[in-house]
């Protein structure tokens, strides 16, 4: 029976999933203690050296290292402990793209909310949001009440944006674009990279007021004269005119299908003939059998962030663009991180 189970992929996945929260937190603790950085600098360290570095009780460190070696992110050899290349690449890095920012946000914001999943899904509301100050309906709006949490959230979002940036830079066609309207631009990470890569491109960043304030401080000084900022509620305020390309990057997944249709129509209406709409983000497989990143994001959106939306399949996004009036609608799925790009043109 055991042999049969060990060879069963679903059984192995089950064990990983149900033990995952403990291993997830072991990895976060490793980051918080600077253990991955220490191993990165040293190459290899003995248990005694790690005890000295962390100033932990030897037994507590032993237990933590068991968790980290079980995760595979730390390797145990005859010489001691070392980072696996995945840990070296994703966790020991200190840049803005480091997964450490994402893990900090998942520990602080995401996973406490997942406790409320059954209640939230059965009640049909994002009841996980009750842990956050305010009366607004979305996490994005409530974060305006907590600058520290907003910083954690947007640093994680920027890190994810940087991880998924290669797909955007490769598949977003701004060759003929003069002015890009980036709706739900976040802290401006996408725009900073796009403007750096295309010297004639200008852009408007549209987001909620507290996020635009953050974007203003984060955007590299040399780009500010090519950028306009627009503090607005994308759902209720009109879109600014003047752009010939509208980008929704990781935005339509946060809203309902009806709201997505309305946003795409608003974009269509402000574009000139020949203007483009590009939709980039997580996307579930068209048959909705996965994958895990799309599933996690869709659950998070519904129990915490907005109470609606999902990692929409390509066919659905393409349908909105056609319904709005776009022609030459094309979608590219299967991009890294379960992403897709769907593009349409105003005739
Ligand atoms: C998941 S983030 C995407 C950020 C960025 N576009 C990216 O690709 O990384 C969603 C963004 O939409 C913004 N947003 C959510 N609701 C909004 C609203 N009603 N009006 C304007 N922006 C909104 C959030 O503040 C957040 O910056």
Automatic annotation (TrEMBL):
The keyword Thylakoid does not apply. Keywords: Methyltransferase, S-adenosyl-L-methionine, Transferase. Residues 114-325 form the O-methyltransferase C-terminal domain. InterPro entries: COMT-like, COMT_C, COMT_dimerisation, SAM-dependent_MTases_sf, WH-like_DNA-bd_sf, WH_DNA-bd_sf. Pfam families: Dimerisation, Methyltransf_2. Residues 20-92 form the O-methyltransferase dimerisation domain. One of its GO terms (molecular function) is methyltransferase activity. The keyword Translocase does not apply. One of its GO terms (biological process) is methylation. PANTHER family: O-METHYLTRANSFERASE CICE, PUTATIVE (AFU_ORTHOLOGUE AFUA_4G14580)-RELATED. This is Methyltransferase.
């Amino acid at each position: 029976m055991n042999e049969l189970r060990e060879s069963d992929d679903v059984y192995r996945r089950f064990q990983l999933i149900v033990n995952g929260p403990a291993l997830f937190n072991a990895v976060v603790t490793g980051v918080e203690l600077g253990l991955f950085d220490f191993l990165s600098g040293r190459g290899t360290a003995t248990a005694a050296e790690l005890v000295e570095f962390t100033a932990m009780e030897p037994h507590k460190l032993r237990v933590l290292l068991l968790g980290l070696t079980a995760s595979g992110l730390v390797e145990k050899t005859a010489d001691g402990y070392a980072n696996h290349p995945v840990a070296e690449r994703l966790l020991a890095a200190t840049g803005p793209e480091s997964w450490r920012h994402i893990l900090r946000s998942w520990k602080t914001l995401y996973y406490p909310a997942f406790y409320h999943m059954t209640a939230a899904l059965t009640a049909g509301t994002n009841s996980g949001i009750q842990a956050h100050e305010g009366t607004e309906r979305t996490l994005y709006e409530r974060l305006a009440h907590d600058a520290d949490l907003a910083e954690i959230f947007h640093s994680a979002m920027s890190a994810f944006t940087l991880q998924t940036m290669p797909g955007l830079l490769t598949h977003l066609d701004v060759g003929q674009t003069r002015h890009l309207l980036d709706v739900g631009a976040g802290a401006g990470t996408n725009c900073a990279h796009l403007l750096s890569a295309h010297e004639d491109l200008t852009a408007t960043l549209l987001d909620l007021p507290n996020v635009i304030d953050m974007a203003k401080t984060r955007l590299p000084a040399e780009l500010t004269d090519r950028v306009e900022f627009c503090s607005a509620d994308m759902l209720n305020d009109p879109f600014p005119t003047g752009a010939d390309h509208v980008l929704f990057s990781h935005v339509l997944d946060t809203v309902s299908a009806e709201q997505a249709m309305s946003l795409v129509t608003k974009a269509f209406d402000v574009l000139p003939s020949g203007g483009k709409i590009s939709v980039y983000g997580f996307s579930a497989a068209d048959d909705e059998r996965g994958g895990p990143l799309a599933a996690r994001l869709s659950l998070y959106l519904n129990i915490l962030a907005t109470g609606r939306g999902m990692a929409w399949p390509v066919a659905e996004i393409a349908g909105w663009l056609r319904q709005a009036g776009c022609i030459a609608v094309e979608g590219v799925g299967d991009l890294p991180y379960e992403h897709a790009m769907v593009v349409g043109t105003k005739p």
